[in-house]
């Protein structure tokens, strides 16, 4: 830590010029930001107060309000932690670095605070004594709200003998302070201390698929989130329109990471689990592992295609249609021809129905025409084309014809198709798989059902003839309305400017710059939801970039869903195969990716563990090495000197756990008790003020979780209960969640791998 204290006076009690100097800068910065905020609030207020204005002005007003509101949200989100660093260049220039960029109110709009994502800020993260990148000094500025509390300087130009009294010889005091600080139950950003290996990943180009792999605590999640913020900054035009999607393993995890992007001033991101990616469906039930594994298998795509085909039925043996005192017999042979012709079009089922309807109507028309129009003498047909058309039209009015078509080529929804299939899967999958996935037709949806629904939606498509007709009608009404607006605008112009020639007028009115078609289009665009909000409601949305955390957990069917949302294949996938728990998870990155991008994807590794001290990491690594002797754990960046311990519970497991919890609960910070789900009720009964359940409140001091829920999270202290009941990867996850202390309580035997490593 620096040798200077927490206010503008040094330890000697004399004023500290450096601190004072930085405080002056920060005061000036906030003064500017306060003005900016005031101006922005006022302009939003003015715009909203305008009331009923002509359409063109309203459109401009809405754009302004949206932009300014975004700016306000960013200003408010970063308030109190605006500036965190400074770089001094050998040229004598200095730049302050912050969460967003701020410019002075001068004619040049001189930058006074550089956004951490700007290229100018990059040396702050990358410069070393070996490669100083033209820096003499890097300064970390620690603030408490608007007050500067500490400075840490690293000298990067070894020939520079000037000293400030705030030198940090190791250069990692700020990082270690961040790693040792008490956890809050919410992940915080790492923008002040991004390490060079992380920075290179954060700023990698957005095109193509980037896989980021690393052990527990290597900052994969932190890097993924900062990458989202970086991409939104660097490719703002594109990504503000198309939005960024971040996929996480469960809602508790999304809650845990949910504050990081707003703290970086970014809100245009959709955070979702795979179970939330089918609009209108909420996955509330949980599958048994075997069922999830079957539903996630790649061949389910073919299985569902076969289910759809099986709904395209044949009469058994005939359907009799009464028409005009005639009976028309639709037999299997005739329908099969119509069905084959329809299938040849290779369209989704519901879209193809229009063709099937046509073929059946034609078949029936031919049948009837032959029956009533054939000349008994020479066998020729006496009907002319208008008679044939009339017959066809009459048939199209007959409800029996439509009931036959509905029976043979029914309109299907993804929900009905998948629910019916799951209620009766025999014949489509092997018997033992069918037994694993069968459930009542009214059963609640699970996360593993969502990729099946999405697949079904693709196979079925939408018969949007009615919607299209309505939209056409609506559009014609809008164009007519827009034309009316333009006419009114033209008429009012002649009133207002009657003393001026049209050419002389400096005031442009709507009719000068826009025609009715375009104006109607603008009206359609008049959708105030952000891109992320619109994306959340649209199954077919193509995201600008997709980030997947814990990517190793996703099934092949879930990958199909995600790839549909990313036609440009602009993706960042982060994960750790050693932490794979889901039976449906995929074995290797190339297995996941080759069907979509062959071998055109990049692979980066993170090797330093920032979370888990070496004493705890050694224990966790031992567990994996017991199964995989060559396993290489990530290197812990710090050690605490505190060894993990293990304690036998005797015959009172809940009592021993309660005692251990009392010992391990940090004065500040959070404790997780990680225990098999079946023990939760008995343990919760003995733990005061504990939070548990599907979505526990992670900000509470003591949280009770099962190992799957603990994935991706971290706590100051962790108590692992009954480790012998976990699978290897679940145990590895559980053991690597603590930043400070780890205890283990067990009944019976302690697994061999844990015996030697604990006290
Ligand atoms: N450069 C950094 N500066 C400060 N803290 C960091 C840095 N990198 C990572 N951390 C911290 O390390 C902890 C672990 O990070 P993170 O959760 O992103 O790791 P992970 O690789 O996703 O872990 P896991 O696979 O176990 O979920 C977090 O508290 C994060 O804030």
UniProtKB/TrEMBL annotation:
Q: EC number(s) per UniProt?
A: 3.6.4.12
One of the GO biological process terms: recombinational repair
Instruction: Enumerate the SUPFAM superfamilies for this protein.
Output: P-loop containing nucleoside triphosphate hydrolases
Q: Which Gene3D superfamilies match?
A: P-loop containing nucleotide triphosphate hydrolases (3.40.50.300)
Root EC class? hydrolase
Which residues bind ATP per the record? 214-221
Q: Which UniProt keywords apply?
A: ATP-binding, Helicase, Hydrolase, Nucleotide-binding
Keyword S-adenosyl-L-methionine belongs to the record: no
- Ranges where the UvrD-like helicase ATP-binding domain occurs: 193-613
Which InterPro entries does the UniProt record give?
Answer: DNA_helicase_UvrD/REP, P-loop_NTPase, UvrD-like_ATP-bd
Q: Does the keyword ATP-binding apply?
A: yes
A cellular component annotation (GO) from this entry: cytosol
One Gene Ontology molecular-function label: DNA binding
- The protein's name is DNA helicase
